[in-house]
Design goal:
This protein is mostly helical. The chain is elongated. Helices cover about 85% and strands about 0% of the residues. α3 runs antiparallel to α5, α4 packs antiparallel against α6 and α5 packs antiparallel against α6. The chain has six helices and no strands.
């Protein structure tokens, strides 16, 4: 076989080139990506505003110093956890705004980041379980009539409160992710699947 023919065949089947996505398809993908970015911005700013408000509101209630101290330490700790996870989300936020999402490879990378950030999001909610349990303990200890409960009744009410709270936390977190992010990720996935069939 001729060496020149072999080179031309090799160049035709160059696997380093990835198929380009048409401008029309890029515009279709851009809309749900912008919705995700907008929701990420809103979530960030609402959290930044909410945490100081919680600390300020605590000072308006006539509560014992010990109780206030515990709540402030919990909110401060929750702030540190939130900052850590928002630093992870920020990377995805920057990558979504990257205008070079013109190839299938770049979309595959983006989907990998979506999956990674979904795990971060679930981890974010799970990381609040110990804080929630601590808050239930503080509330239970600060209610005067709870000291009159029998051990069995106290254990029952305490465990019931924790199970109910965790149930609400789990379903609220899932709903939040699906409503603000999941449906747009699914839309992008559908568009990419349609492109593969073309």
């Amino acid at each position: 076989m001729d060496l020149d023919n072999l080179k031309s065949l090799w160049n035709k089947e160059d696997v380093s080139e990835t198929p380009e996505i048409s401008t029309e398809r890029q515009k279709e993908i851009h809309l749900p990506l912008e919705k995700i970015r907008k929701n990420m911005r809103n979530e960030f700013w609402s959290t930044i505003i909410l945490l100081p408000i919680i600390l300020i509101v605590i000072w308006f209630f006539q509560i014992p110093f010990r109780f206030r101290l515990y709540i402030e330490v919990l909110v401060g700790s929750m702030t540190l956890v939130t900052v850590f996870f928002f630093s992870k989300f920020f990377k995805l936020y920057k990558d979504i705004g990257n205008p070079t999402l013109g190839t299938y490879d770049s979309l595959k990378d983006l989907f990998h980041q979506f999956e990674l950030n979904k795990q971060y999001y679930l981890s974010f909610y799970l990381s609040f379980v110990p804080f929630f349990v601590c808050e239930i303990i503080i509330i239970t200890e600060s209610i005067p009539y709870s000291h009159e409960y029998t051990d069995g009744l106290l254990a029952f009410k305490f465990l019931l409160s924790i199970l109910f709270g965790l149930f609400v936390l789990y379903f609220a977190g899932n709903w939040w992710f699906k409503h603000f992010y999941g449906k747009y990720i699914d839309k992008i996935k559908l568009l990419v699947d349609e492109m593969k069939m073309d």
